[in-house]
Give the backbone structure.
Amino acid sequence: MSRRPAAVPAASARRFISVDRGSDAPGTRGLPVDWLAMSTEPEPELTAQRSGTAGPIPASAAWREGDPIGHRQFLDLGPLELEAGGRLPEVRLAYETWGTLNEARDNAVLVEHALTGDSHVYGPAGPGHLTSGWWETLVGPGAPIDTERYFVVCANVLGGCQGTTGPASIAPDGRPWGSRFPYLTQRDQVTTEVALSDALGIDAWALIVGASMGGMRVLEWGIMAPARARRLAVIAATAESSADQIAWAHPQLTAIRLDPNFRGGDYYDAAPGEGPHRGLGIARQIAHTTYRSATELDARFGREPQGGERPIGGGGRFTVQSYLDHHGEKLARRFDANSYLVLTESVLSHDVGRDRGSVEAALARITARTLVVAVETDRLYLTDQLERIAAGVPGAGPAYVLHSHEGHDGFLVEFQQLGTLVAEFLAE
């Protein structure tokens, strides 16, 4: 029998909602499939990638000074003392906004992105933005978080690679930070977002919402600045990273660091095709396997060979291997290897109970009304971990559990279920 913490509500107390996905649900084994078109990741392809003319993979896909700004805005925060020691002498935060802040300044929503996300929640791909908005099913005009009603803000997280200070940014000596970039925690990242709130004149957010790594920052917001949010939505996240989650991350970090083109983290002057894209791609393949469920992968791919390739005795691939290769390359074309390391390590350090007595003591500090959502088949952030959060936060009811075959990525795929929950939570 599996053990669950005594404070966690029984499975019968969970709240389930379900939506019929119809006949167009992804993956029917044996049918011809265009995996590019079917991808449910928040990473729409660039036109060049679709046409097969993308060329060599850049050493880093980080946004750099002089690149098109796109929809970004920037806030310079000055120096930042870091939780683990060390100091960033200057911090710039890149963020985007949609909608209008009302006169009472009480209609603001903060969206927290996940590990390889960025500030571009809504809007098309184009100059300055390698991909279109990653959560347009949840945010936008007429969406559950309606930008015609709410003022929505999303910042690229500290340590990221799309405009906020990170390893690819230029240090005071005029060179990229690279291997010299310091260790960050989720609390450091929230500290910069609190400063952004101050700059925008937002005393309290109507809602702070995030999934996966974003959900971790939502929890830290509720603990570090309990008066600054009226509602929190924690989706597919955990209150502390477990040994299992740390174990899955370890080979990802190792793959990047052992890539000969990683050069100890100082690869920014490398020519296209000579950066650490192989290590980053392998890291993404490992991670992506944890983002999907075994049921979904088997239903979509089974043991089918890729195209005319011969995986048995012919050196070819199974279709699922081709799928992972595709996602590995796709990330390498839009992300930065050092940022992947820095942000993954910030996830591994995540523990709301650190220096606060215990996880339960920390969760008890949260005063905001809190929505907690798990994904039924998530094998990365387990339902029990979300139930622990729901049991520990005074203003939370039992955790909702999304019905989904998609695994962790269900928070991106099951937009009808999740959108209904978020819209009703905002309307209460």
